[in-house]
Design a protein that fits this description.
This protein folds into two domains: 114 residues, no CATH class; 100 residues, no CATH class. 65% of the residues lie in helices and 4% in strands. It contains six helices and two strands. It has a two-stranded antiparallel ribbon with strand order 1-2. A hairpin with a 5-residue loop joins strand 1 and strand 2. The radius of gyration is 21 Å and the shape is flat.
Length: 228
């Protein structure tokens, strides 16, 4: 894939901004800062400044080149040329999510009153919704999308499953966001039901379409070799 700086530059700027924020905050925060919250948004774990300020930026910095160069080692790398913008938008959305998570934890470390559960759920819901909007644009590959044995063995299963997945991901995003806003036991149960039900639907649907596809084929390497 050719380097599209309109997609790469925003990610690099965000990552650099996270490290700059860590450098700025390093001397202003105590040795122990909050690093983990329970489902009710209460702090239930503390860590040192390295964990609280550098772990997320380092994670994003490691994931950036991994996501950037995955297409070059994918057996289906030619297909990435058919959805470069969708893949780039997903990467930017993921980087923004991580940066938002970092900003939230940073605000909490400075003693700001933030509802971590609500904010994280809203951001996660938005990421799922963006992903859902991109699903129909993703073409067969081995790393991105709904990769079941049946979507990887049938073009029809891949296409139809991803069209369904687009709607289901947006539904999951709505459920996660609602759970973050309402923060009740029954809404959490609804969210888990929607998440698990949506995943099950995608898997089952991919198999049903595969079975109906007269052009389905076995993935390379799984057809038994003839005896010599």
């Amino acid at each position: 894939m050719k380097t599209n700086w309109r997609l790469e530059a925003p990610q690099l700027i965000i990552i650099a901004g996270m490290f700059a924020a860590a450098a700025w905050a390093w001397s202003q925060l105590p040795d122990k800062i909050p690093t983990h919250w329970n489902i009710r948004g209460e702090v239930d774990g503390y860590g040192d400044r390295f964990t609280g300020l550098l772990l997320l930026p380092i994670t994003v910095a490691v994931l950036y080149p991994l996501f950037r160069f995955l297409p070059s080692i994918d057996p289906g790398k030619r297909n990435y040329e058919n959805f470069p913008t969708a893949y780039g938008v997903f990467r930017i959305a993921f980087t923004l999510f991580m940066a938002g998570l970092y900003a939230t934890t940073m605000a909490a470390a400075f003693g700001r009153h933030v509802d971590v559960t609500m904010i994280v759920c809203l951001m996660a819901g938005a990421l799922l919704a963006v992903t859902g909007n991109l699903m129909g644009k993703i073409r067969p590959n081995w790393f991105i999308g709904v990769r079941t044995p049946w979507t990887l063995s049938s073009q029809a299963s891949w296409n139809k499953t991803h069209r369904l997945a687009g709607w289901l991901f947006m539904l999951m995003g709505l459920a996660v966001a609602a759970a973050g806003v309402m923060q009740t036991g029954w809404m959490l149960a609804v969210m888990l039901t929607v998440l698990l039900g949506s995943l099950a639907c995608m898997v089952i649907y991919s198999y049903v379409i595969y079975r109906r596809d007269p052009h389905r084929q076995s993935p390379a390497g799984v057809t038994p070799a003839e005896e010599k």
